[in-house]
Amino acid sequence: xxxxxxxxxxxxxxxxxxxxxxxxxxxxxxxxxxxxxxxxxxxxxxxxxxxxxxxxxxxxxxxxxxxxxxxxxxxxxxxxxxxxxxxxxxxxxxxxxxxxxxxxxxxxxxxxxxxxxxxxxxxxxxxxxxxxxxxxxxxxxxxxxxxxxxxxxxxxxxxxxxxxxxxxxxxxxxxxxxxxxxxxxxxxxxxxxxxxxxxxxxxxxxxxxxxxxxxxxxxxxxxxxxxxxxxxxxxxxxxxxxxxxxxxxxxxxxxxxxxxxxxxxxxxxxxxxxxxxxxxxxxxxxxxxxxxxxxxxxxxxxxxxxxxxxxxxxxxxxxxxxxxxxxxxxxxxxxxxxxxxxxxxxxxxxxxxxxxxxxxxxxxxxxxxxxxxxxxxxxxxxxxxxxxxxxxxxxxxxxxxxxxxxxxxxxxxxxxxxxxxxxxxxxxxxxxxxxxxxxxxxxxxxxxxxxxxxxxxxxxxxx
Length: 463
Known about the structure:
The structure is a single chain. With 463 residues, the chain is mainly alpha-helical. The chain folds into two domains: 77-342, Creatininase (Rossmann fold); 347-461, Alpha Horseshoe (Serine Threonine Protein Phosphatase 5, Tetratricopeptide repeat), CATH 1.25.40. The protein has helices at 3-7, 40-49, 52-71, 101-107, 130-145, 173-189, 204-214, 252-261, 284-288, 296-300, 314-337, 340-344, 349-361, 365-376, 383-395, 399-413, 416-427, 434-448, 453-461; strands at 91-92, 111-116, 149-150, 194-199, 223-227. The protein has a five-stranded parallel β-sheet with strand order 1-3-2-4-5, sandwiched between helices. Strand 4, helix 7 and strand 5 (223-227) form a beta-alpha-beta unit. The protein starts with a helix and ends with a helix.
């Protein structure tokens, strides 16, 4: 897009009033951790302990006894609560201290896992927290394979069809979307710019993609990734003693999960034996015609039970959970390696500014100017960013535009008279277009209204 085309766009909203405002998603408001200095006395005491013959004897005992023990892999390492590739425990957000948190973020390469679960009815025999427990376990096992911060349980997702069942937690749709958006912003503010939403509830198959698409509506310095081990059938290769085509909600699969995680919460004596888990087919005619309704699944399974849970076992549960964990871990590895999604993300302020700086250094001044025009016609810049685009415009030979953005820098700094002077310099540029002229004149008139009356009168008299 040419500079002229960009200049003929509607003026951005942040140019409408001469007030100082903070930028959206600015680098100086992102990440940033300050660690306290170590206690000098504690450091001195530690130094005393690491010198002398007593320490050397302890070190020899450590190498002789402890190291061989620690280097032995457990027979089934993924089920060991302390297992991770580096020998450290999985990184649960809520269990870290404030001092540990920055190093944990760095170790996990800025990746955070959020299990998207729900609190809802699961037949007669499983706890309301079935999806929550399963989601928590899957991301925990995945994080032991591929380190990532585990966000605390997030169970405010899609479940309006079960609101009438006791114990269900179902927030209003607009509220849960806004809540999830705020949660993602907080995760990013704490230094994790790669946020992985892991589905642990079948009802999220529409909510999560919708939320991901919403990320494109405004600039962000982070990327939301979706991983759906349910929809992608991550455990399809696992051999189980039941018919996969009829198993489902609260059925043998989910029952096996909870038998493996919390067997004390499973009531196998309450599993129906009268075919209650079979689909009722009340909307079969619509389904066959390719028609979908919000009440479709409930019409088939009003007691929120699908399949035959009597086939469930803890052994099957562990196999299914391991398969899902490996699927998520593989996705995390790909996400850590990804640099393209964030680069392509529209109007990411820090990244776009850095890209423009690189273009300026390599001599591509016009392109740098066009990129910044597109960015700051949609996002309010900080004063320093306004001055930077003025510098880039000048380097690109767009003198009028350079004066224009310097005027906006002075507006943000509170010097309206200097802003008006810059706009008049812009008007004096021979190459100024009619569209630019009208814009600058309108801006001068607007700014003059904010000058003190006596000063404005002198300005008008002076021409």
